[in-house]
Design a protein that fits this description.
The complex is a heterodimer of chains A (346) and B (274). Chain A is of the alpha+beta class and 346 residues long. Chain A is built from twelve helices and twelve strands. In chain A, a hairpin with a 6-residue loop joins strand 4 and strand 5. A seven-stranded mixed beta sheet of chain B has the order 10-9-8-7-11-12-15, sandwiched between helices. A six-stranded antiparallel beta sheet of chain B has the order 4-3-6-1-2-5. The chains are: A alpha+beta (346), B alpha/beta (274). At the A-B interface, strand 4, helix 4, strand 11, strand 12 and helix 10 of A face strand 13 of B.
Chain lengths: 346, 274
C-alpha cells in the first residue's frame, strides 16, 4: 500500500512528527541539511535540491563527538564521565538514493564484532525520508555503475517520488510506516494511476545517461592486479592531499581519537572522536617517522582500493554509492570513475 | 546496548623499571587493576593505554598470560603519549582497554623448537611467549633467543635474558663492536645467519624494526624455513583498536583485529603497508 502527500503538506507533516526534522535548504549558495523550524508550513519545506554538498552521514556519525570527559586533581586518580548520546528522534528528509545507500554501509562498519555505542545510539534514532531522482542526473552521478539506481530504496525508511504537485509515498521500513501514520489525514491512499505514474518515472529515470567505468565486477580484480602499477603515482600527481574526497563521501568513516584539554587544576578535558582522512600523511605515520603510505599515489590507491576491493572482500559490496561528490569537489579534477576505468582497461 | 568499548579501565602503575636510558629510552611498567577489572589476554595481544590529557596508544602486552596479578608494558619514548607515560611515577593512574588483536598460536607449537629473534623494543611483543615457554619448559623442545640492540646500552630485559641462559640458548648482539662486549657484533639477521638455526620441527618468531624483520625473514628462508614456520607481529598506527578508525588498514585486514600476529605465509599476501 502506498500513499499520496500534497507538496504543500510537507511542512505540516514535518510539524506532525515527534522528531527533530532536517531538510535541505540553500544557505550561501550551498545545499545543506537544516533544521525545519517547528510550524513550518507550506513552502517551509520544499525538496527542490539536486543534492546536498555534504552527505547526511553526520546524523549518526558527527564530525566531532565527545566519547567521555576526564578530570584529575594533581596526585589523584582521574575521574572519567561517559558521555553516551541519548538523542531525540531525528528525521532527515530529501535524502537522495545514493546517500540512502550510504547508511547500511556505515552500519556494516560500526556494528559487528565490536559494536560502536555512539554510532548506534544515534543511528537507532535517525530515520531517512528519501527522494527518488527523476530529473536528469548531475554531471558526476554514477549510482547505476555501483549497483544503485535513481529510485533505490536501500537504506531509506520512506521513499518519496515527485509527481509534480504531490509525492507518491512508500514506507520502506516499520519506522517509515510510523512516520506516515504520524501524518494522519495528510496522507491519502494512492490510486492505481499514481502508482503507475511513479513506476513510470522510476523506469524513465533508470534509462538516464550516467557516467560509468563499465563492469562493476571487474573493478576488484583490476585493482588487485594493478596494486603495484605506476599508474597510481601518475594519477595522483595533481593531488594536493586536501582530503575533500573523503570528508564529503557518504561512506568514508575513518576517524581520529584525541584529547582536548579544557582546563587545569584540576586538569580536565574531553576525549574526542573526529573525522579523519586517509589522504593525510599523518594518518598512517608511526611515531618513529616510518610511514607505510608515504606517497599521494599510495594514499589515492588506498581510497579507491578500500571502496572497491577491501570493503568488497570484507562485506560483499562496494563502499561507494556513486554520489559523485569526490569528483565534483576535487580541486584538481581527480575522478574516481576515470581512475576505475583506467584500472579496468589496464 | 553493549558495554562501551571506548571507555578504559583505570590501572595503577605498580612498578617502573628503566630498561634503556638516553635518546631511545625504554621503560617497563607493571600495572595493577582494581579487583575484578583485570582482563585475561593471550600471547601477542595488545592494549590501548591512556594518559589522560595526552591521548591513547596501542602497546603490546609484555607479560605472560600466566601472570594474573599485573600486566606489563615496555614502552619506548618516541611520541607525545610515550613521553608522558615516561614522566609518570609509581602510583600514578593510567587507562587501559583491551585486549585487542589475535594471538600467537602457542598451543600448536608444543613439542617444537622455538627460535625467537628480536631487535630493539621488539623483544616486548614476543616476551610473553618466551615467558610462557619457560614456565612450561617441558612442553617445548629447544628454545633459542636471538636479540640485539644498537649498542649494549640499548639491550632491554638484560638481567632476565641472562637468567634465561639456564633454560634457553641465548645469542645477544650489538650493531657495532664495543669494548667489553663479548657477544656477537653486527645486525640481528646476520647473527641468525652466522649462528645458523635448523628449520626442522622449528617455529621462528621475530619482531623488531621493519627493516630487521625483512632481513630476518630473508635469512630464515635461506636457512630452509618454510613460510608457515615464520611468525611475526606487525604494528601500525591505531586509534580505535576495534577495526573501525581505518588507520591500521592493510589490504582487507585491520591489524588491530586480524593482526598483529601473522605467519609469513599470511603476511606475504598482504600489501606491504606496515
Amino acid at each position: 500500500m502506498s500513499s499520496i502527500l500534497k507538496k504543500t503538506d510537507l511542512g505540516a507533516w514535518a510539524a506532525a512528527l515527534e522528531a527533530e526534522v532536517f531538510a535541505p535548504a540553500l544557505a550561501d549558495g550551498v545545499w545543506a541539511y537544516q533544521p525545519v523550524a517547528p510550524g513550518a508550513n507550506d513552502g517551509g519545506v520544499a525538496l527542490t535540491h539536486p543534492n546536498t554538498a555534504r552527505p547526511p552521514k553526520n546524523f549518526a556519525f558527527p564530525q566531532r563527538e565527545v566519547l567521555y570527559t576526564f578530570e584529575q586533581l594533581k596526585g589523584q586518580a582521574p575521574k572519567l564521565t561517559e558521555t553516551l548520546p541519548n538523542p531525540a528522534p531525528v528525521v532527515v528528509m530529501g535524502v537522495r538514493p545514493c546517500d540512502g545507500r550510504g547508511a547500511p554501509r556505515n552500519d556494516m562498519v560500526f556494528t559487528g564484532a565490536f559494536d560502536d555505542p555512539y554510532y548506534q545510539s544515534r543511528r537507532a534514532k535517525t530515520a531517512y525520508v528519501g527522494l527518488a531522482c527523476n530529473t536528469p542526473p548531475s554531471p558526476n552521478c554514477f549510482c547505476k555503475a555501483v549497483g544503485g539506481s535513481p529510485s533505490s530504496k536501500e537504506g531509506l525508511d520512506v521513499q518519496l517520488t515527485d509527481l509534480g504537485d504531490r509525492y507518491h509515498v512508500v514506507a520502506v521500513t516499520p519506522r517509515g510506516e510510523e512516520l506516515i501514520e504520524a501524518g494522519g489525514k495528510l496522507f491519502a491512499e494512492a490510486g492505481a494511476a499514481d502508482e503507475k505514474e511513479s513506476q513510470r518515472l522510476h523506469s524513465e529515470a533508470a534509462k538516464c545517461e550516467q557516467r560509468t567505468f563499465g563492469d562493476l565486477a571487474a573493478a576488484a580484480p583490476a585493482l588487485k592486479k594493478n596494486f603495484d602499477s605506476e599508474m597510481w603515482q601518475s594519477l595522483a600527481k595533481a593531488c594536493i592531499g586536501c582530503g575533500i574526497c573523503t570528508f564529503l563521501c557518504p561512506t568514508c568513516h575513518c576517524f581520529d581519537i584525541s584529547d582536548e584539554v579544557t582546563g587545569q587544576s584540576p586538569m580536565r578535558g574531553e576525549r574526542v572522536r573526529t573525522w579523519d582522512n586517509c589522504q593525510f600523511p599523518d594518518f598512517t605515520m608511526h611515531s618513529s617517522g616510518h610511514n607505510p603510505r608515504e606517497t599521494l599515489g599510495a594514499r589515492l590507491r588506498q581510497r579507491v582500493n578500500h571502496k572497491f576491493l577491501y570493503f568488497v572482500e570484507n562485506n560483499g559490496t562496494q563502499q561507494c554509492t556513486g554520489c559523485g561528490r569526490c569528483i565534483s569537489f576535487c580541486p584538481v579534477g581527480i575522478d574516481i570513475v576515470a581512475v576505475l576505468d583506467r584500472m579496468i582497461q589496464a | 546496548m553493549t558495554e562501551n568499548v571506548y571507555l578504559p579501565k583505570l590501572a595503577r602503575i605498580a612498578s617502573i623499571k628503566d630498561e634503556v636510558v638516553g635518546a631511545r629510552a625504554i621503560k617497563t611498567f607493571q600495572v595493577e587493576f582494581p579487583d575484578g577489572d583485570m582482563f585475561e589476554h593471550e600471547c601477542g595481544q595488545c592494549a590501548m593505554i591512556s594518559v589522560f590529557g595526552k591521548g591513547e596508544m596501542m602497546i603490546s602486552i609484555a607479560s605472560s598470560p600466566l601472570v594474573k596479578d599485573y600486566k606489563q608494558f615496555s614502552i619506548m619514548r618516541v611520541g607525545k603519549v610515550t613521553t608522558a607515560i615516561h614522566a609518570m611515577k609509581v602510583g600514578d593512574v593510567i587507562g587501559v582497554r583491551g585486549p585487542y588483536g589475535n594471538k600467537f598460536p602457542v598451543n600448536d607449537w608444543k613439542g617444537k623448537n622455538l627460535v625467537f629473534i628480536g631487535g630493539g623494543c621488539g623483544l616486548a611483543p614476543i616476551w610473553p611467549i618466551i615467558q610462557t615457554a619457560v614456565a612450561q619448559r617441558s612442553d617445548f623442545a629447544n628454545i633459542t633467543v636471538f636479540y640485539g640492540g644498537r649498542s649494549s646500552r640499548d639491550i632491554m630485559y638484560r638481567a632476565e635474558l641472562e637468567k634465561l641462559r639456564g633454560v634457553a640458548d641465548v645469542h645477544l648482539s650489538v650493531d657495532q663492536a664495543e669494548e667489553g662486549w663479548e657477544g656477537y657484533c653486527g645486525f640481528v639477521p646476520a647473527n641468525v645467519m652466522s649462528t645458523g638455526v635448523a628449520p626442522d620441527n622449528a617455529i621462528a618468531i621475530t619482531c623488531g624494526p621493519p627493516i630487521m624483520i625483512k632481513y630476518v625473514i630473508q635469512n630464515l628462508k635461506g636457512l630452509g624455513f618454510a613460510d608457515e614456520q615464520i611468525y611475526t607481529t606487525i604494528e601500525n598506527k591505531m586509534k580505535c583498536g576495534i577495526g573501525k578508525c581505518g588507520r591500521c588498514n592493510v589490504g582487507k585486514d585491520y591489524v588491530c583485529v586480524s593482526g598483529p600476529v601473522y605467519s609469513w605465509a599470511q603476511l606475504k599476501d598482504l600489501p606491504q603497508e606496515y
